[in-house]
Protein 1
Amino acid sequence: MQSQHKVTRRNFLKSCSFAAGAFALTSSAVNGQVQIANSNAKVRLGRKLPNVIHILADDLGYGDLGCYGQKKIKTPNIDKLAAEGMKFTQHYAGNTVCAPSRCVLLTGLHSGHSFIRDNYEINGYQLALPAGTKTVGHLFQDAGYKTCCIGKWGLGGPDSTGTPAKMGFQHFFGYLGQVQAHSYYPDHLWRNSDQIPLGGTVYSHDLMTKEALWFINKYKDQPFFLHIPYTIPHTKFQVPELGEYANTDWASDHKIQAAMISRMDRDIGTIMELLKKQNIDNDTIVIFTSDNGPHAQSGTGTFFDANGPLRGIKRDLYEGGIRDPFVIRWPGKVKPGVTTDHISTFWDFLPTCADLLGVKCPKVKWSDGTEQDTDGISYLPTILGKSGQKQHEYLYWEFKARKTQAVRQGKWKLVRKSVNTENPISELYDLDADLGESNNIASANPAKVAELEQIASNAHILNPYFKILYGE
Ligand SMILES: [Ca+2]
Ligand SMILES: [Ca+2]
């Protein structure tokens, strides 16, 4: 096991040093099944393939929704999704900021294995996913789905190796770069490879919803995968109307924050209405989650208790930075009103979709031909209420900007700080007894700390773009 790890690690170094494109996933193992799917995309193995709408909020915290305990901000439509579907209490983002979390979501590898591990800015865009990367977009596309991404991309600029089109999304509309997305009134957005001039006069979020409605109407008769990484409620604090919050005595930014989240909620309601109107409501899985914990700017974190009972916010590897709301609605398949404490994460999305489609999950293929499985585990058994749900041995995160690592193993949580120094600091928490990570019990549990430190060490493969450990 250990020697295999070393081989993988060495090959990764080789891949990154000599051939960026070698960090690639292959679909060759599933070609046979993909062809079956392509020959009859609508009905496969005697069952109708469901549409999948995956909505990703940006910097929305664990406590920001009514169905997760929010008292001030109204989110009736997302609450309805939860009431009509399944709510997860222990679902984790891929990372604690935007780009690396999205990379994990789309590629099925945790941040010790993934290619993009921080917001790596290049001329207003981000480090691009390398050529040949296989994403969940490809998975659906290969299965005959119409694939679409509307929102904030952040995984490669125009003409890069990581454009949405190259990453399995046949249609894209929105921001390619994350920095540009800091304004809701952009100079332009992108529709595929075309710049759409907007002159800074139109609220971008509204255009995204409009595009999503257009896409659903256009492709309602074939299976589609619609990924909507909305930019709300990431700052700036900008919204066209304050709505029901206009007459509160709250601070201006608090009113705006609430109005932004409620606007997104309203638009999710509009999308749900369209699914019903087009009679595809029962054939469509709708998923809602967030890419990382709350930003907490202008005191919103405290005022709204945006992280709920958790410790920490965006950029932390405490629970508040990485544990997020996660609801799935699929009428007739997912029992309504069920809450699960199954431990799941963004890197489970790819294998779950492969499970849904009945195809093998693609492997990472290294430059010397060796392969690595996804780090994820399908949560399809959990959402369908079936037996046989596999559990993670551990979850792992690393975040370069803060020089931190974290491991979740059952009730245990290791947070490791200053990992770029000779003497990293380990904190240990028992999440069953101490959900808020307020009582560091590392000194009383040296054997558990050592075990989890070893897991962290093994889970991390050096990535030359994101050196983080001492001596790398
Ligand atoms: Ca984010
Ligand atoms: Ca709190």
Note: Residues 163 and 184 are 21 Å apart (CA to CA).
Protein 2
Amino acid sequence: MDYPLAITISVGCCSVVYVLIRYYSSKRAKLIEVSETWWTPGTENSVSNDIRPYEIVFSEELVKDLKHRLKHTRSLTPPLKDVAWNYGTNTDALRKLLDYWADDYNFQERQKFINQYSHFKTNIQGVGLNDSPAGLAAYLIEKFSTGTNYSYKSREDGGFLEKYTYDELIDNLMIYWASNSITTAMRIYAEMFIKENFLLGKLINSCV
Ligand SMILES: *[C@@H]1O[C@H](CO)[C@@H](O)[C@H](O)[C@H]1NC(C)=O
């Protein structure tokens, strides 16, 4: 094959490939409609979306109610032998944290400590759900354990006390509990797995 012909064929092939890539990527890049969802009674316009300074208050009533709930959790299912945290939160470690929360956590002192920082609150498409404090703790301490160091999964105590004190962990729980905001904080997971958003994520990844 002579040289100019080879060049012509190569350029021709490249053009065809280029046109095909453009065609398929333009099809793929079709805008995905992501619908907004509203998670609370009322309509979107009936509540303010202003961002407001917010003080976290552990009222006497809140503390009394919380202690009652902590003391009256249904009995926790004991962990399997030697399972550590491989099946999620170890209930022996959870019980210790719940007891500390009810008996030793100094609500007044920690409220002052937490409010040294500025907190802001807005209405993010609805708040709700009053998780049990034990459920909230079980969910979050598993993140503090495994998320801090994956190898902590194999420790009975979950390892997190190497990095945090009970007070620090419970401060986190109290911020969610007092502001009743675990639902909105978790919304990201629901959003992530909505079909349209999942496709959007895939699309963004494929572009990157
Ligand atoms: C995680 O814990 C293991 C011991 O269980 C330790 O060897 C490792 O350095 C830790 N990793 C980090 C990032 O702290």
Note: Confidence is low (pLDDT under 50) at residues 124-130.
